[in-house]
What we know:
Strand content: 5-15%
Oligomer: single chain
Largest sheet: 3 strands, parallel
Structural class: mainly alpha
Amino acid sequence: TGVPEGWLDRVLDRMGPGTSFRSISRGATVPRSMAGDQPSLSLRSVESFKLAGWEGVHDRTKQALTALYTGLEHPLSPAVASTLTALDTSEQLNAAEYQPGADYPDGDFAEGLVEIARLVKADVGLRVAAIDVGGWDTHTNIGRIDQGDMKNLLTPLGEALAAFAADLGDRLDDVTVVAITEFGRRIEQNASN
Length: 193
């Protein structure tokens, strides 16, 4: 078909249908690994997952969008239905006022893991979640085990993953964490450390 299909999209295809929260990415867009025909949500947080202007007109807006896409063979109809269901789910989650079960470090990656742990523990049908962590394209001062850019990057990553594991507790047995990078370095140190 010429349309790119990411490897996580192929995984979701084999898993079969699921809930509107079965595949999420933290951020503004879906990563390439999730590109394809399987629906995925992009969100910053459960609290921020809402329609602009939603307050005060929730029921009327939902009714209008439902009526607009009902009985119409429009390419967006399935996405609209899934989004409306996801909005209902996020409202229910927000009403529960989630408190993490661990102390997470500061930072965007840790905040993303809090959201993923929340969705795992809420049993919303989450099967795949992705967080992109930038800043790893280091060219100088990678350093050694006790100092340098790599230590400065790996320390908060490890601390956030440890908090995520503690937060999930026994639920971690049902979770697989995969860290992927496309960037590598040679073993021998170059002139810029």
